[in-house]
């Protein structure tokens, strides 16, 4: 028979296991979408690194906390580019320090002209990110896209990358992205889309869904201008119906509730904002009627 001390120790151990189970259950319950070409699930809020991760060595600690919290809250997709200054190096160092590589989905880009120059740049990105295999390599802003897609298709076959795609940040290039989708087998397209920039709804999102391409959304807050516009505007009462406590969550849910969208990648260097963004992964998602109410409220 157990004495009281042994009984209390067993109860305490059970409580700890219960807490760990609850945290794991919450992490597993985040809103996710599958990559059409593989059915691999990705949480629908990721983390961008443009500007925010381009910092000096002495300014990395807040980003380390952001990355740690991002993973703890169930995040996976982190997106960078050689165009983003020191962002790849900073992200790679912090991922290694935190031991997070196996739990993250690392995406970066090639942004240079010339096939050989592209190979060199992508290998440099792999070194900076400390990852011999990149989960997703994308042709940034369609620069020399045909030459780089030839390389990426070969690298995917060799196992050097897991997925390939293309990106652009401006609606003026949506037609070019759609033309590529017609002739190329793309795992991902990354485009701008938000409640303020809805041009992708006309054709691109539907085409991506039809062609089996996952969609990553950049500029989810239209470059931050949405917050300036909504600064003095109270959050509508209906936000509570879908579990939103901030404009950021409402705008993110508008994006990720679109059936063609796989993941949105807001960038931040603040843990407070990161937690707010990740809150959009929980609670009900808006239906079409609610999406219209969100768009009307923002407008």
What is this structure, in a nutshell?
The protein is an alpha/beta fold and 299 residues long.
Structure description:
- Helix 2 runs parallel beside helix 10 and helix 6 packs parallel to helix 7.
- This protein has eleven helices and ten strands.
- The chain starts with a helix and ends with a helix.
- Helix 4 links the parallel strand 5 (105-110) and strand 6 (134-139).
- By secondary structure, the protein is α/β, with parallel strands linked by helices.
- The radius of gyration is 20 Å and the shape is globular.
- 43% of the residues lie in helices and 14% in strands.
- The chain has an eight-stranded parallel β-sheet. Strands 1-2 form a two-stranded antiparallel sheet.
Layout of strands and helices, then pairs:
Layout: H1 4-28, E1 32-34, E2 41-43, E3 47-48, H2 61-72, E4 77-79, H3 87-98, E5 105-110, H4 115-128, E6 134-139, H5 145-158, E7 161-167, H6 174-183, E8 188-192, H7 204-211, E9 214-218, H8 225-230, H9 247-256, E10 263-264, H10 271-278, H11 288-298
Parallel strand pairs: 3-4, 4-5, 5-6, 6-7, 7-8, 8-9, 9-10
Antiparallel strand pairs: 1-2
